[in-house]
């Protein structure tokens, strides 16, 4: 189980690193946009992201 968790975390790090590596300017712009968002919008987008992740895991398994 720990092995699978570490693999999943490593894959998240690789996937998260792709956009800043390929387009650092767009990443800066995206971070500025996120910094300007109000807390409620940021929470809702985080919730939607988590729900989509759980649904994807459910469909894959």
Question: Can you tell me about this structure?
Answer:
The chain has 61 residues and is mainly alpha-helical. The chain is built from three helices and no strands. The chain has helices at 2-22, 24-36, 39-60. Helix 1 (2-22) crosses helix 2. The two termini are 15 Å apart. 0% of the residues are buried. The mean pLDDT is 94.
What order do the helices and strands come in, and which of them pair?
Layout: H1 2-22, H2 24-36, H3 39-60
Helix pairs in contact: 1-2
Please, how many helices? Answer: 3
> Which overall shape is indicated by the principal axes computed on the Cα atoms?
flat
Span between termini = 15 Å
Fraction in beta strands: under 5%
The helicity comes to over 70%
Please mark out the parts with pLDDT under 50 across 5 or more consecutive residues, or reply none: none
Q: What class would the helix/strand composition place it in?
A: mainly alpha
Order of helices and strands: HHH
How large is the radius of gyration? 15 Å
Largest sheet properties = none
The residue-averaged pLDDT reads 94
Number of strands: 0
